[in-house]
Structures are given as C-alpha cells and as structure tokens.
Amino acid sequence: MPRHFQAITITLASFLFGLCAPVTADVFLSPSDGSVTATSVGIAPDGVDEIIFTTKTSLELTYRCASPAKITWQSYTTGSDKTDAASAANATSLSVNAVPSRGYIVTARDNSDNVIESKTLYIVQMADKMFRPISLDTVTNDDHCTYAKLRAVYNNPTVGYVTSSGASKSIKRQFTIAYNTVEYNGTDISTVERVDTFMTKANGNGVEDTINVDAPYANTFFKLSGDLICDALSLTTPVSTPYEYESHIVTAKISAKIIEREGQNEAQRSDSSATTGIGGSAPLQVAFTSNSNYPVAQFFQWIIIDNDNKKDSSNVYHDRDLNYTFTRTGVYTVILKAEHNYDASTSSACQYDCEPYIDSILVTVSESMLEVPSAFTPNGDDVNDEFRVSFKSLSKFNCQVFNRWGTKVYEWSDPTTGWDGTVNGSKASVGPYYYIIEATGTDRNSDGSYKTYRRKGNINLFR
Q: pTM (2 decimals)?
C-alpha cells in the first residue's frame, strides 16, 4: 500500500462451504479527508453488512477471498435498479468516482458458478449531510441540585441508506455534551471531563433540543459537539455555552492521615487499618482533608464528638482542612459538613441552595500502657543501645536513673527518648542501676481519675 494512503478494513467474515477465508473489503483513503465505518462509531448496520460514511470524491473498494473463480460487483440506488459495476475472474477491486450515496454488492462464485458468498456495503456521502452545532445555553430550572438544563440548537440533515432489497433505513444521529465535574478517586479529588451522549431530537435545520445532564460538581462551560459520525470525520466545530455555569451542588470525602512521632518505642503509634476508621496512641495528631469541590464548597464545619462523653465534647472548627490532636483515650466521631452558601442568621444553607454534604469518620485513641525493660547494651550496634520504655497513650512521663550509691545519673520526661548509658559525656560503668518512673495515661479509672503509673526497679547496663 502506498505510504500516503490509509486503510480502513471492514471485516465481513463468512465460512460458507469452507472455500473463503474471512472476507474483507478495504477502503483506501487519503488521510486529508478520510472515511469512517458505522461499526467504528457504534452504529449497528441493519440489512447491510457495513456502512461507510465519507466526504471523499473517489474510493477504491477491494475484496479478498481465497481463490474464487469469479468476483462480481453490482451497485444500486433503490435496490431494484442493480447494475453490474465490474465482472471478471480477478475483479478484486472497484473504483468508485464522484462517490454518491449508493449500495454495492460483491459476490464470490466458484468454478460451477455457485455463490460462495455475497456481501453488501453502502456508502453514505456526507458532504451535504453535516451535523452543525449552532448554539448552546443553560436554562434556569427548579432542580439545579439534580441536573443542569441546556438548550441546544443544531442543523441535523437526514442520513439514511437503502438495503439491497429496497428497504429505506434512517440513521439516528448522536451528539455529545462535554463538561467538567470533580471526582474522588480514593486518594484525592480532581477535575475530570464528563462526556454524555444523546440522540438527536429531529431532522432539519435549526432544531431546538432541551437536554438535562447530571448536575456538575464544578463551575464549568458546556460544549456541544457531534454528531459522532462528523466527529469521527473531524468535520465538526463544537460550540460552548457563552457563560460559565455556576454549580451549587457540594461533595466532600474525609481522608485522614496520622502524623507519626519519631520514637520507635511507642506501641501502636498508628493503626490506619482499624475497621472503625483510624486509630493510635495519644497524643494522636491527625491531619484531616475535606477532599471537597472547593470553591463550589465554600463553608466547612468540622465537629469532633467524644462518643463516651458527648455532653462534654462538641468541638467545632471551620477550616477547609483540619489538623487536630486527640489527647484522651476513647472513640471519637469526626463529622464534616460542607456547603455552598451559609446563612449565619439561620445557621443553615441559604434559600434555593443545595443540601450540605455530610461525611464522617471514626477515630480510636488507644488505652495507655507502660512496660520497662530489664537491661540495655549501649555498645553502638544500634540494637538496644538506649534504656527506653515501651509505651502508648501517656500524657505525662518522668524517669530518673540512680547509681548504686544513690546518685542520680540521668533524668528525662519524653517517653520517646531514653538514656544512652553515659554520664556527663563519659561511658557509665557496667552493672545494675536503679530507676523510678512516674507517668499518667490518657485513659481514666472507674472513678473518673486519670490512670497513673509508678514503676521502680533495676536496669542492667551491659556492653
């Protein structure tokens, strides 16, 4: 095939008598204007094997079959006016000039003049049948929270074809409306283009059509394009709404990330796989993201409720995203309320605005725990080099270490750190040391007081 030609292959598969391989008709086209098939744009041919839509003035049809004795080409306009177009033992191709809308029948026969198969191809000349978008405007409606109402105007000439038996068929044309909305992909929220397909309302010029599309979650322009045949032929000029549509519908989806501390000795620093949401050891610092369709969503309300003490916990914040530290053990419900407009005088959404979007997540803050090792080995191998406790959910902590003569050699108040086995910059002697630990948990006893820890004992230093 010459390099400057492009081929579209139409598969007309048949296995009659086992004599023909899958049959194809190849249409060789100049890439400057091109052609498209009905099946390639989602149109199912009825009464013919394939339809070609083109604006070309000449085409070459090529038929392929395994060793037929004779190939016959016929053309027709009405179905009853079939005329021979080419007939020869090697007539594998047919040149079509001027390319009117017309049907073509190709028949393969064997040496006994028996028909191996016969296939029908109809060419639709689109030069005078172009779908022309004229205008697109938004229309005020009473349910803008559910759908956006559009008025489209377009020219839509009738497009049809005729079967070999003379039956006239019309083709329903489809056009598209494209617009932006936002979607949450499980990680964050992003703007995406949505394309909806509609059937034309009627044939003719200046057709007015009212269209409803799902209310977008973003301020957007709408674009009318089509029909699909003309789009595939790259012969359509889209039109857009003259003004940006203002969305009123809000969406949001809470995502939460625990900000972990560096100390490796804190048990259950975070538990993002908890079935109740997320959780971890207090003080639990969490970064909440609204993942909203801002700026459509303009007002935000975060409500943090202690499920075990609801009367004493109604913390409310109005940031789009929120960083919050949970300092007490328990299960908390974090609620996000996002809305487009807010009327402070009524503490509700403004009249005619859409309903607020509400999402929630559970946060579990673990109970406290304190465990003390019996030895450590500050020898520089990065294994148990410091005297550190294992803990979770402590609000206060203090540890003092004494030598065998009762002299305090080290003291610290951050449970994520510990003693490295030095005294005033020098290595401490190996042997036993005495510790006193006092700590307070973020959970409470049955009487309402916070749980306290007091630990005393020996810690052995080895090298």
A: 0.77
Distance (Å, rounded) from C-alpha 263 to C-alpha 250? 40
Lookup result for tokens 């005393």: 456
Q: Are 338 and 288 in contact (CB under 8 A)?
A: no
Structural domain total, the chain: 4
Cα–Cα distance for residue pair 152/3, rounded to 1 Å: 42
Last residue of a domain, one of 240, 267, 296: 240
pLDDT block averages, 10 residues each, the chain of length 463: 35 33 37 72 92 88 75 92 73 81 90 88 92 94 91 96 96 94 91 95 95 96 94 90 94 91 78 64 93 94 90 82 95 94 50 81 94 96 95 96 97 96 96 98 94 97 94
Shared domain check, 119 and 12: yes
DSSP assignments along 401-460, one per residue = EE-TTS-EEEEE--TT--B-SEETTEEPPSEEEEEEEEEEEEEE-TTSPEEEEEEEEEEE
Closest C-alpha to 394, from 456, 311, 323, 450: 450
Please indicate, yes or no, if residue 235 is contained in any of the structural domains.
yes
